[in-house]
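Summary of Year 1 activities. Much of the first year was spent building the evaluation harness for sequence design. The harness presents a backbone, in tokenized form, and records the residue chosen at every position. We chose the following record to illustrate the format because it has been used consistently in internal testing since the harness was completed.
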């Protein structure tokens, strides 16, 4: 049975997460502040940590940084409040595997958990070439063709397609794409992602209005099904 450590000082959120993970057959441990989170991470040796950014005694960012400095590679998903863009970027830079913005659905969280756990077990590997339908993409060369004819993808479109393809079948949120593909940029919004997805679809899909490869998952984000 996989073990999860939930670090959350809000009692109602902590209980809801505990109940959800227990339903999913996880062994659950709880911590309410950063210092106890570090102690429990050593004592329990969890397979996954759900870590709130705003915690008493020590922030979630400091907890994450400490664990990584101790070469603890446990997968960490951080919980951030809406609007904490800088915290999201810092969290990823210091070693968090993913983040979820409050409020969120438990279904969305579990989709992230499954993706992070697969990556932790080496089930996601970088891809240098991608072939789907009549499209071929060569990321190292920065070239792409459709039906044998060259198609012009921008550097951002290459990065966006690669990120989605490396997580084939996983739902990727707009916020994840903004943080990873765009980096922190206050001028970028979820609309930015939608516009770029539409442009990418127009180049790789046979019928962009009825896409087969980059699928919209309403209320959650996008997934690649090539």
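For this record, the design step produced the sequence shown next.
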């Amino acid at each position: 049975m996989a073990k999860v450590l939930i670090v959350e000082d809000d009692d109602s959120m902590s209980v809801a997460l505990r109940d959800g993970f227990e339903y999913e057959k996880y062994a659950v441990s709880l911590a309410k502040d950063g210092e106890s989170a570090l102690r429990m991470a050593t004592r329990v040796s969890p397979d996954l940590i759900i870590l709130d950014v705003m915690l008493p005694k020590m922030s979630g960012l400091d907890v994450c940084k400490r664990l990584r400095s101790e070469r603890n590679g446990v997968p960490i998903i951080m919980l951030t409040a809406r609007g904490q863009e800088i915290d999201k970027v810092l969290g990823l830079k210091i070693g968090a595997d993913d983040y979820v913005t409050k409020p969120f659905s438990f279904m969305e969280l579990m989709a992230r958990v499954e993706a992070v756990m697969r990556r932790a077990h080496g089930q996601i590997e970088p891809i240098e070439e991608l072939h789907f339908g009549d499209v071929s993409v060569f990321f190292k060369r920065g070239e792409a063709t459709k039906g044998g004819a060259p198609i012009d993808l921008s550097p951002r479109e290459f990065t966006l397609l690669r990120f989605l393809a490396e997580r084939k079948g996983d739902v990727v949120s707009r916020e994840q794409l903004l943080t990873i593909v765009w980096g922190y940029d206050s001028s970028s919004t979820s609309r930015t992602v939608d516009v770029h997805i539409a442009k990418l679809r127009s180049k790789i899909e046979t019928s962009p209005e009825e896409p087969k490869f980059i699928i919209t998952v309403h209320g959650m984000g996008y997934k690649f099904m090539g």
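The helical segments are 11-23, 34-44, 60-69, 85-93, 106-120, 155-165, 174-182, 190-204. Quantitative recovery figures across the full test set are reported in Table 2.
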